[in-house]
Specification:
alpha+beta, Rossmann fold, 14-stranded mixed β-sheet, 6-stranded antiparallel β-sheet, 15 helices, 35% helix, 27% strand, disordered C terminus
């Protein structure tokens, strides 16, 4: 049973008057449906019969048995090749077969065997039927025997043709107009046509009514058995909501289904296509496969802020977020990327392990950072290692993960497309403009949230970095203040950097280029030989804590559920998958809230 359904039943009671009514209504419908399917077995029975008698009978002979009426002969009837000899009140002797009758030319005495001449006639007076077991069937009512026998054999195939056509027609209509309307229409049709078939006046009206009955009967059954193309549910579905048969009740040896209210597949829009937006969309798609997820952004890779990021997994500290939460985010991200680095997709995703040093001019207050047991091989640097950095007194050596950001973003986009996520280039000026298209909106717009939602606590921290060709540099080096760093990637080395608070400029500063290069060369003198220097600028979306929370927007009584996931500053890559999983969990809570609202409306 779905978690939302279980919570609903906990509130309403697991088996009350509502469930009982729906249960017995479903059982009644299912039983009547089965009766209609099997009715032809009983209605189209062909009992023993012979040609009708052309006059009043005085005596009846069947082999050696003589009776006063044909009704007494049926208990002796053993084969369709048998015939009955009758003598009429006028003295004529007739032989009655199933599909013909013969008049004996000589009728001096009544004997079963006759070798003389006979005149053969058709059964123009109808037929006589054995009614000892079957008082009336459609065969006896309309004489569907002999040359009309094929009409009786057509009854069941015609019914099944109606089943086929009903399945096609009502299945399509249900997905267009909603299953609720179809279920009520076909239920009413089953009731009406089920009664009307008893009042048909000839064979052809009987066949027409049975055909229509087959269509609506199958239409009712189809809506129970076949999942909806829109939302995957299996009972009362309308475009916005559906009643899904998830709850079950065991009665004796049978398994009977009870409906629990569910909403249609929720539509989720993720606004933003940086590393936060794409990873969040991926987590939502994986944790909620029934959701319809769409990524909306005015910029995709390689034109996002994430494309500029260094992509090293060394956490940035958020003062307003508990340390244990930050550690959990980092650990989940590290575990996720570490698995990719050990897979065949590592090269395509641009993820690899890199070892190196973080050096300090003075010993820090916390020599053991909170993330030290997450990275690999964390230890203090030895005296021999520190000799490489004569201006620094303390250092930490460890192995972490490095993402080459553009390939990683493209890899995420590929995963999203494989999961059925749609991606559209669209500038969203106001989250409310999405309320008519989506049930839930996830805000992953980074620095764009400053204008989009008017977040005054969000501010830019300008970062300028250099991307150089220096393939001999294999180890990362990071100054403890975080301003100067050297991060080798698969193809290029990132040199940084700057942290310019409240600076909105995206244009490179020539003086800053020289300053960055000189600072990095002081840590790694061999960089003087670096070539093909490219300059990148990005605005880190910074807050004192990551905004990771739910919000309900409301206008005129209409509500839009929103999940915010932005404000990661310089540490976005280090915690992106951890915060994405948390955002996906919040989306799950929104879906449960929508289901609860839908259920109360239905009940």
């Amino acid at each position: 049973m779905a978690p939302g359904s279980e919570r609903l039943f906990d509130s309403l009671g697991h088996f009350g008057r509502f469930q009982a009514c729906v249960y017995f209504a479903s059982v009644f419908q299912a039983m009547s449906c089965g009766i209609h399917y099997l009715a032809s077995v009983f209605m189209a029975v062909t009992p023993n019969f012979v040609c009708g008698i052309p006059g009043n009978v005085s005596s009846v002979l069947f082999y050696n048995s003589s009776e006063s009426s044909i009704e007494d002969i049926w208990t002796l009837w053993t084969s369709t090749e048998n015939y009955i000899v009758v003598q009429l009140a006028n003295g004529e002797v007739w032989e009655l077969n199933q599909c013909s009758r013969s008049k004996r030319e000589v009728s001096l005495d009544l004997a079963y065997e006759y070798k003389g001449n006979k005149s053969v006639f058709s059964c123009s007076d109808g037929f006589l039927y054995d009614d000892t077991k079957w008082k009336s069937t459609v065969v006896t009512q309309w004489d569907l025997v002999c040359d009309q026998e094929w009409l009786a054999k057509l009854i069941q195939p015609t019914f099944m043709l109606g089943v086929l056509i009903g399945a096609v027609i009502f299945g399509d209509i249900a997905d267009r107009l909603g299953r609720q309307r179809v279920i009520w229409f076909t239920s009413a049709g089953q009731f009406v046509f089920g009664i009307a078939v008893a009042f048909t006046f000839d064979y052809y009206s009987f066949m027409i009514v049975r055909f229509l009955l087959a269509m609506v009967t199958c239409g009712w059954k189809w809506k129970h058995d076949v999942p909806c193309r829109k939302c995957g549910c299996s009972f009362l579905c309308i475009p916005e909501k559906c009643l899904d048969f998830h709850a079950t009740l065991h009665v004796g040896a049978s398994l009977l289904w009870l409906p629990t209210p569910e909403m249609a597949a929720p539509k989720v829009a993720v606004v933003g296509a940086g590393v936060i937006g794409l990873s969040t969309a991926l987590c939502i798609a994986e944790t909620c496969p029934s959701c319809s997820v769409t990524v909306l952004s005015d910029q995709f890779s390689p034109n996002t802020t994430s494309d500029v990021a260094a992509g090293i997994l060394i956490p940035h500290t958020y003062p307003g977020t508990p340390i244990h939460v930050q550690k959990q985010w980092f650990k989940e991200t590290f575990t996720y990327l570490f698995a990719i680095s050990n897979s065949a997709e590592a090269s395509e995703a641009g993820i690899h392990l890199v070892s190196g040093w973080q050096v300090f001019r003075n010993t820090p207050k916390e020599e053991l950072p909170f993330w030290s047991d997450v990275v690999l091989g964390f230890r203090p640097m030895s005296e021999a290692e520190l000799q490489k950095f004569p201006q620094h007194q303390f250092g930490q050596a460890f192995t972490t993960l490095k993402c080459d950001c553009p390939p990683y973003l493209l890899w995420l986009e590929k995963r999203l497309k494989a999961s059925g996520v749609q991606m559209y280039t669209r500038k969203v000026a106001d989250l409310w403009e999405l309320h008519s298209e989506y049930n839930i909106v996830v805000n992953c717009t980074g620095i764009g949230a400053h204008q989009l939602v008017g977040d005054e606590k969000l501010f830019p921290v300008r970062g300028q970095v250099l991307k150089v060709h220096a393939p001999w540099v294999k180890n990362f080096i990071r100054d403890g203040d975080g301003l100067t760093y050297i991060y080798p990637g698969i193809h290029r080395v990132t040199l940084g950097g700057t942290r310019e608070k409240e600076n909105w400029s995206l244009f490179p500063d020539p003086g800053t280029i020289k300053d960055i290069f000189d600072r990095c060369c002081s840590l790694e003198p061999s960089l003087r030989g670096a070539q093909d220097i490219k300059v990148k600028v990005g605005l880190r979306p910074s807050r004192h804590w990551v905004r990771l929370q739910r919000e309900v927007l409301s206008q005129g009584g209409v509500k839009l559920l929103v999940v915010h996931n932005y404000g990661h500053g310089a540490g976005g890559f280090s915690v992106h998958m951890g915060t994405a999983k948390e955002a996906a969990r919040l989306v799950g809570e929104c879906i449960a809230a929508l289901q609860g609202t839908s259920s109360r409306a239905k009940l």
